[in-house]
Amino acid sequence: FERIIRVNLIGAFNTVRAALPLLHEGSRIVFTTSVHGQAIAPPNMSGYAASKGGLEAMMRSFARELGPRSINVNAVAPGMVTTELTLGAIRKLFAAQIGDSSGDLNEAAMIRQLNASQAIHFTPIDPGRLAQAYLFLASPSGAVITGRPLHVDHGMSMK
Questions:
Q1: Which candidate, 62, 42, 41, places its Cα nearest to that of 53?
Q2: Residue 147: which residues within 8 A CB-CB, separation 6 or more?
Q3: Whose CB has fewer CB within 10 Å in the chain, the N or C terminal residue?
Q4: Measured between alpha carbons, how far is residue 118 from residues 2, 109, 142, 149 in Å?
Q5: How many CA atoms lie within 13 A of 150 on its CB side?
Q6: CA–CA distance, 103 with 154 (Å, rounded to integer)
Q7: What is the pLDDT of residues 59-116, one digit of tens each?
Q8: Catalytic amino acids?
């Protein structure tokens, strides 16, 4: 629990505090939170959910604190993203459920089954598409948004 809080919450706080002297008017801060920070707090992930929920609260506080300097503070809250870390966790989860440690599970079926109860679309988010959310918030088009998480989750947080 403490390690997760140190990395996800205290690390983000220390990064912002260290960067503040370098930030000028119109700068953007974009945190990475998660659908697990507010909308979905799954069992056995209380430390992670708490760290991401705390990060969203900190984001809103920083947005109010830094708004007078025209510094916007937002977050991207992704759902399941197609990374080796995510796919590895899915493999372990399904191997444990079916008692198969061979790792020879149908990846597409696992992802579809996991997403079926959580998202409107049944595919994880491509990292390249996720990057577009960060670029949007950092762009001139994102200049009117502050203190908000942008959920990039195929509707997962709506459920």
A1: 41
A2: 59, 60, 63, 64, 67, 73, 74
A3: N
A4: 28, 15, 28, 19
A5: 20
A6: 27
A7: 999 999 999 999 999 999 998 787 887 777 767 766 666 665 555 556 666 666 665 5
A8: 48
